[in-house]
Amino acid sequence: MKKLFISQPMKGKTDDEILAERSNAIQAAKDSVNDEIEVIDSFFQNAPADAKPLWYLGESLKLLATADAAYFAPGWNKARGCKIKNLCAKEYGIHTIEA
């Protein structure tokens, strides 16, 4: 079983839009990996009210470190946090799947 990290642009999106995109990402990753996957919960719905973008990035990188594979949802290459996570995944040998 592979642990999957999902990176997706979230700025300006509702929780419902984010969760729908995550569902699509999970299916695309399953099709790509050809193995059972366990999705790492990286959608911070209960983040501190005053959390800044770097807080989210730091927490995301901690979770990315536990992944076997990382799926980058459409638009990832235009979102600064996603681009940083993509670079980290590649530099540290985590299998990347780019939509």
What characteristic shape results from the CA principal axes? globular
- Number of helical runs? 3
Strand order of the largest sheet: 2-1-3-4
Stated plainly, the CATH topology is called: Rossmann fold
The CATH architecture comes to 3-Layer(aba) Sandwich
Number of domains: 1
Tell me the distance between the termini: 21 Å
Classification by helices and strands:
alpha/beta
* CATH top-level class: Alpha Beta
How many strands appear in the DSSP assignment? 4
- Unreliable parts: none
Mean pLDDT across all amino acids: 93
Protein name: DUF4406 domain-containing protein
Organism: Pusillibacter faecalis
Notes on the structure:
This is DUF4406 domain-containing protein. It comes from Pusillibacter faecalis. α1 (15-33) links the parallel β1 (2-7) and β2. The protein is 43% helix and 17% strand. It has 99 residues and is α/β, with parallel strands linked by helices. The chain starts with a strand and ends with a strand. The chain has helices spanning 15-33, 53-64, 80-91; strands at residues 2-7, 37-39, 69-72, 95-98. The protein has one domain: Rossmann fold (3-Layer(aba) Sandwich), CATH 3.40.50. Strands 2-1-3-4 form a 4-stranded parallel β-sheet, with helices on both faces.
Question: How do you describe this structure in short?
Answer:
The chain has 99 residues and is of the alpha/beta class. The protein is built from three helices and four strands; from the N terminus they run βαβαβαβ. A four-stranded parallel beta sheet has the order 2-1-3-4, with helices on both faces.
